[in-house]
Structure formats: C-alpha cells, structure tokens
Amino acid sequence: MTETPKSPRKAGHGDDSIYWDESKNRYVGAISLGYTAAGKRSRPKVRGRTKTEVRRKLKDLRKELDVGVKPAANYTVEQAIEAWFASGLKGRDESSIKTYRSLSNNHLIPDLGKAKLRALEVDDLDEWLEAKAELLADQSLKMLLSILRRSIRQAQRKKLVVTNVAELVELPAGRPGRPSKSLSLEQAEAVLRAGQGSWIHAYVVLALLVGVRTEEERPLTWRAVHFAETDDAQPYVDVWRSVRRRGDTKTRKSRRSLRMPHEAAVVMAAYKRQQMQVNPGEWSEDNLVFPSETGERRDAHNVLRHFRSLLRGVGVESPELEFKNPEEWTPRELRTTCVSLLSDHGLPIEAIARVVGHSGTATTERVYRKQLRPVITEGAEVMDEIFRES
Question: Which of 171, 110, 167 is nearest to 139 (CA)?
C-alpha cells in the first residue's frame, strides 16, 4: 500500500520531523539542533522513498550525533580519498604515492567518487569489486580496497562517518598477475653484449650476473662497490639499501654482500673509471652508481625505458636473437634469469635463496645462519663457470 503524504508538523528543538517534498518526490526527515554560533539554523536532513526508510535513516543519524559525528550528508567518497592523499600519506615513498594516485584516478574516483560516503552500502562495494576482479590482477584489487579503507578510516577519525563499510566487504580473487619469465642462456649472452660502455649495460650486468634487485641498484653508491685491491681479495657489492621507505631492503635477509663474478667486476670497474673521467672534480665514493642526467636517483620508469631500448638493439648484432616485443620484458626479469641460470647449472636452491636475498624456507634459514663468510660467493662462482664455458 502506498503511503499518503501528510502535512509536516512543527518540530521542537531536538525533535525529528518527517514531511513530503514534492520537488524531490521524496520523504524528508530532519532533526532540529537549534542554531549555530553564526545564527544559522542547524537542521541535518535525510531522504527516502518511504517513511519507514526515512525513520531508519534518522535513527542512524541520531547514532552518529550521539557519538559526536558531524553530519556530512554531502561528503563524497572522492573528498575522503583526496583528504587521505593530502594528509594520510606522510613519509610514504614517492613511487608508492604515484601508484595510489593512478589507481584512484583510474578506478576509485570515476566509479565511486560522487557517491555520498554516509550512503555507501556494503552491497554497492561488493558489486563494484566483483566487476573490477574481472579486469584487475589480485595485487591491484588489493591496493584499491586498501586505499578506500584507509580513506574512510581517516574520515572516521575526523568524525565525518561512523561505519567503515570498506572493512565489511570480502576481497574477491582478481585476475592472475603477469607471470615472470627469464632469458635463455643465448639471450642472456646477447643482452650482456648490448650497449657496452653505457650505464644501462652496467646496470644489466649487475642485475643479471649478481642477482641484485632493480630497487636495490637505483640507490646504490660507489661506497658499496668493492674491487679487489690484492690478488687474494674478492670484488663484491654491499646490497644494504633499496628505494623503499627509510631505505630498508625488502626483507632482513635481503641485506647482504655479494661477490661479483669476473665479468661483472671488469664491467663495473670500467664504468667507474668512465664516470670519474666525466666528473673528475665532483666525483666521490658517495656518488650514485647509476645517476640520472641531472645527477639524481633514477625512477623505475626511466630504467624500464632504457632497458627496453637496450633490448631493441640486441637484434642488430644477433638477428636470430632479436626480441620481437621488448615491451613484454621488465628489468626484474634479469634477476629471474639469474636464478634460472644458477638453478640450471646445479646450484642448490638454498644457496640461490641466499644469493638473491629471499626469505626462503626453514632449510634456507638454517643455511643462512651457518654462513661464516661475510661475502656470499656461490652465485659469482657459478656465473664465472657459465659464461667462461659459453
């Protein structure tokens, strides 16, 4: 049965009133809270198709008022997200902020931005996440929900909303992420010959032959690269920092010192001499090993662009090894290639885990603790064998 609109009754201070709004074709519920310090009447409102719906919304509004939440009927999801970007990301890495911003601009704000935060329902989010799960990988989906949860959490702290509906939804499984792949031995040899004398060549050599993560290479300084001063010394690199927040490596075991294979040591020594000649008066041990043209730390996109450009040049000397689509490759797959080559050559998985700084299994943990030498040498020894034989 359709409810018949009735004339509104005058509400006293603190009373609730419900009336029919012809222009909105909705029932309106209002709570009279008197006047503000500026003399403006304070009368927060809710709307609904039926009186029952409006009564429920008024009840929820009362709860918000009782716990000190400021009625903000027009506060949108987009405003909450922007407020989080403005003050909720202190100390975060710049690359992480760029990723959050990209995900927000491409997915959250276009899809949910105009929704009123107080009116956001769990069912709405469930449907939205299910639709996104068909398009996005697990990690991207996880990050989207995390951004939304943290944005609403900040709105809760500011007393703008009571319930964080994003905390009440289950995350569906997204599309599988892009699988990692590795270069064949022949491809690896061709890549190691490409672009000799350039910084990206030295960068590739260090990643492929030593197993350093690309995020560990970008902040690397010459103070961390050690060359053999005597015949019985070993060239090695201290992998102690990354581009992550506070400069920490990915895990505790990622902080390691790795011996450089002969070819890597030769390439890095030549590259160091070249860099010293270019800036003889300004060069120091604290200089970045792979600085940008302006002397600053390179970002991931810059490295990716130069790496793919290097791959395009591989086919010039070796047409049979030409990379048909360099856009399919990323620098992190140099490290995958390092693991693959070491494994194919028979190095135990426990030793490989130590070389590349994985957290590893219980076996890896035991081997790691028994390591007596400060510099891990197994990877370099095998790489010397692989590329000496080839």
Answer: 171
Question: 257 has which bridge partners?
Answer: 238
In angstroms, the CA 93 to CA 154 distance is 20
Residue 321: pLDDT over 80:
no
| Residue located via tokens 């009564």 | 55
Structure tokens at 186: 């022949």
Q: Give residue 214's identity as a one-letter amino acid code.
A: T
Q: Is 83 left (phi over 0), alpha (psi -120 to 50) or beta?
A: alpha
Higher pLDDT, 279 or 39: 279
Nearest Cα neighbor of 106 from 68, 152, 141 is 141
| Nearest one of 2, 64, 4, 55 to 30, comparing CA atoms | 55
- pTM here? 0.58
Residue 291 has which token pair?
């600085």
**Is the separation of the CB atoms in 29 and 55 below 8 Å?**
yes
* DSSP labels, 162-179: S--GGGGSPPPP-BPPPP
Of the pLDDT bands very low, low, confident and very high (cuts 50, 70, 90), residue 104 is very high
The catalytic residue positions are 213, 250, 335, 358, 368
Cα(226)–Cα(228) distance, integer angstroms: 7
